[in-house]
Prior knowledge:
Layout: H1 2-6, H2 18-21, H3 23-37, H4 44-60, H5 64-80, H6 85-108, H7 116-139, H8 148-168, H9 175-194, H10 197-289, H11 298-328, E1 336-339, H12 341-358, E2 362-367, E3 374-377, H13 378-395, E4 401-408, E5 414-420, H14 430-433, H15 441-446, H16 454-464, E6 468-474, E7 478-485
Helix pairs in contact: 3-10, 4-6, 4-10, 5-6, 5-8, 6-7, 7-9, 8-10, 9-10, 10-11, 11-16, 12-13, 13-16
Amino acid sequence: MSKSASNIADKNIVDRSRTRRNKAVFDAVKSTRERLQYGGVGTVAFECEMLQMHIAETLYGATIMPLFILLATGIGVYITRDIEIVGWTLLALSGHALALIFARKAQKQTITPANVNRWVSTFLAVQIIIGLIWALFAGYPMGAKDAALPMFYKGATLLIALSITAMSNFMLRRAILMTFLPVLMALGINAATSQDPMAIGMALMFFMAMLFCHYITRRLHNSSIKLLSFQSEKDDLIAELEVAKSMSDEARRRAEEANLAKSRFLASMSHELRTPLNAILGFSEVMASEILGPLNNPLYKEYSGDIHRSGQHLLDLINEILDLSRIEAGRYELQEDAVSLLEIAEDCVGMIQLRARGKNIRIVQQFERSLPSVWADEKALRQVILNLLSNAVKFTPQGGEISIKAGWTARGGQYVSIKDNGPGIPEEEIPVVLSAFGQGSIAIKSAEQGTGLGLPIVQAILSKHDGQFVLKSKLREGTETIAILPAKRILQTVPAVEDVQAVQPRKRSFA
C-alpha cells in the first residue's frame, strides 16, 4: 500500500525520472570536460570536425596555390630563360588538382569516426605527392648570367609556398612535414653535393622556416581543437539547461495543480468540518449550561464541557490551517487601513486578561503614548498580538509576570514586544518552534494544548506587512517576542495649516 501511495502523481511534485533523463546530457558534459581538462587533442570526435573544416578551406582557397604557381613560373622563365619550367608547372597544377578532386569527393560523403582515419591518410598521401613535385623544383638546376639570382628566386618561391601551405592546411595535422620534408631533403642533397655556401645557407634557412611553420600550425591546430571543445561544452550545457528548464516548468505546473487541489480540499473540508463542529459546539454549550434543564448526573455536565473545549480546539486548528494555507498560496489579502497599534495592543490585553487572572499572572503594560497610526490590516495585527499573548500566558507559570511594550524602533518603525518569565526555549529548538506544527520540548512535556501554527502565522503576516518577527529566549529565564512594522508603514501626521491673511492686490496709480 505504501509503495503505491508513494507513486501518486499529486505527491510527486518533482519528477523522479529526472536523473535517468539527464544521464545522457551529463555523460556528454563530463566527456567534454575531460577532453578539455586532460588535453585530449586529436580525439576522433574532433578530428571529424577538423577534417571537414580542412576540406572546406581547401575548396574555398582552391585558386590561391595555382595562381602562385603560374606567377612563380612566369618569373622563373623570365629570369632563367628556361622553358622547361613549364613542364614542372603542369605537374604542380596536376598535383593541386588531385588534392581538389579528393576534397570534392570527401565533401560529398559523410565524415564519420569510422572513416576519418582513412580520409586523413588519403589527404596526407596527396600532400606527399605535392611535396615530391616541389622537391623536383628545389633540385632543378637553373642557369642565369647571375648565379645568385636563380638561388634567390628558388628560395623565395619555396618560402612563399611553405607559408601558403601552412596557412591553408593547419587543420590537417602533419601536413607541413609531409609536404616539405622531401623539399628539405632535396635542398640538403644539393647543398651536400655542391658545397656551395649559398645552397647550404638556403637549406638551413628553409629548415628553420619549416620548423617555425610546423610550430605555428601545431599551435593553430590545438587552438582549433580547444575552440571545438568549448563549443561542445557550451552546446552540452545549453542542452542541460533546456532539460532543467523543461523539468522546472513541469515541476512548477505540477506544483500549481497540487496547490489548487490543496486549496479545493481545504475549502471543502472547511465547510464539511465547520458545519458539524458548530452543531457540536452549540449543543455541548447548551448541555453544559443546563439551559434546557438540569442534568441529573454531574459527570454529564463535565463531559459536555470537555466536548465543547475539544470542539473549540479543533475549530481553532482548522482556522489556523486555513489561514496558513492561504498565506502560503499567496491568497491572503490584506485589508489595509489607518489603525492604531497602541489601541490594538490594549484591546488584546483586555481580551487575554481573563485567562491571565485564572493563573494569577500579572500583565504589565508599557506603551509610548502619541504613537501615530500605521497602514496595516487591523484584523491581522490583532491576530498577531493575540497569538503572542496567548503563548505567553500559556507558558508562564502560576503567579508569573508578562510585560507588553509598544513604541518606536531605532529606524523609525513601530514595535510590540511581549516578554514572559516562563521556562524559556532552548536555543537549538528555536528553528523547530518557528516551523509549521513545530513544538518545543517544554510544550510537549507540559502537554500544553496547541497546534504549532501560531508563530508561523505571525511570521507570515508580518512578512506580508514587510515587517519582521524576532524571537529571543533563554532557558529558565523566559521568552521575548517582538513584532516590528517598518517605517514606511507609519502614517506621518501633518500639522494644520495656519490661517494666513490674504495679500491685498496693489493699487495701480496712473498719475
